[in-house]
Amino acid sequence: MNTKIIHEAQNSPRDLSVIEKPAVSVSLLIFSINKGKLEVILIKRIRQPFEGFWSVPGDIISIEESLEEAALRVLHEKTGISDVYLEQLYTFGDLKRDSRGRVITIAYFALIPHNSVDLTKAPDALHARWTPVLNLPKELAFDHKKIVEYGSKRLKNKIGYSNIVQGLVPGKFRFSELQKIYEIILGEKLDKRNFRKKMTSLDIVRDTGEMYREGKHRPAKLYRFTTKNLVIYD
Amino acid sequence: MNTKIIHEAQNSPRDLSVIEKPAVSVSLLIFSINKGKLEVILIKRIRQPFEGFWSVPGDIISIEESLEEAALRVLHEKTGISDVYLEQLYTFGDLKRDSRGRVITIAYFALIPHNSVDLTKAPDALHARWTPVLNLPKELAFDHKKIVEYGSKRLKNKIGYSNIVQGLVPGKFRFSELQKIYEIILGEKLDKRNFRKKMTSLDIVRDTGEMYREGKHRPAKLYRFTTKNLVIYD
DNA sequence: ACAAAAGTGTTAGACATACACCCATGA
DNA sequence: TCATGGGTGTATGTCTAACACTTTTGT
Q1: Rounded to an integer, what distance in angstroms lies between the CA atom of residue A84 and that of residue A201?
Q2: 0.90 cut: is pTM over it?
Q3: pLDDT-derived band at A15, boundaries 50, 70, 90
Q4: Domains of chain A (ranges, CATH numbers)
Q5: Which residue's CA is nearest to the C1' of nucleotide C5?
């Protein structure tokens, strides 16, 4: 033991300006539910490297903005919205992930209701697309496939013990809508009675008193989440 | 919506060398159980800023090493050991966390059996100390208090649904030792019969056939973990 | 009256919790 | 024989999973 202890300048050098620094970016997984599928925004790259490949939105972090600010900025640039559930996912820093040089990326994920964005109205509409997570292109730019998969996994885990799903639903919703979203993310059918029991026993949704009338069948009660805050149960 | 969409150079600038970059470091929470407490290695700073304050070990990431390599390097420098459970925790990037300039730090946590390190033999022995997590100094350097607290919370959560605790125990152990570790981390007493049932039903430990004889009482069977791999259950 | 989605209860099994006594050993 | 930690089983409550029919509406 201790054969190779290096006498290290403590923690970090006196002068940060002398060291060679990696570039640091944020990458943003913007998830939504659309047409029965979990989708994520991808951007077609118009430059090398990976020209023509699809990538996750992202940008270099400015020296004057925090990580979360950078993530929110990218989100706003791509979608025009700002008030969303945002969570830091993981930081990816392999040496070769970007051929232009060393780039470390801090991945975030955001959940938005699908109707809150119209990508066709975004300035780079031709290059931004909603893509089903289960139908990704074979290859994405950089290590972005890994990032999307990591994020999907986290989402799938986390809806099981938190109320994050509310990021994906409109303010008022029917129980059947909510259940559908769980089913899509989990990839399995749920029992309607048990689902209702679970949700109500956790006190995570509340009856608004309003009804939703549509089609030739019984109207549905509309519910909302009891709180906007993230709640972790279990 | 979309009132302020900025036409952005896609993803990142063509030339990474022109941008002003933050420094990037790793911070390492090295946890161990000692004298009935969960402890973490802290280092007394000998330079400004926060001279004389305790801090979490860390170092600037070299341009030629991955994040995990940097974390392992710091770990090896501080403890002389390399074969440990290491997990990325979170990335902290507030603007003002380091007064010398913009520093983003990627925090990792490592779990080691206490007897595997002798800090008094480390080169900076005077400056490195095991410190009980429940007895931290009032203030730590930078945002390190937040980091330690975040890490302790993650550890506490994760022992509930994984076998990571094995990072903290020696290769062979008595059930009572294992239980003690859970109790320390969770901060509550556990029932010995229920604990044993849980562990054996999850098939996470296995009888080695060996016995541990000590003191004037019945010898204890020695167990080991069934696998070295991380196992997530639940 | 029928089609379509909304809404509702009960039962059985799995799992978690609470709890108290005997065992093997060394002094 | 006694003190010490090792080792074991049962009963109860709680949570989960499986399962089918009635209600309300529009056409």
Answers
A1: 26
A2: yes
A3: low
A4: 21-158 (3.90.79.10), 164-225 (1.10.10.10)
A5: A217
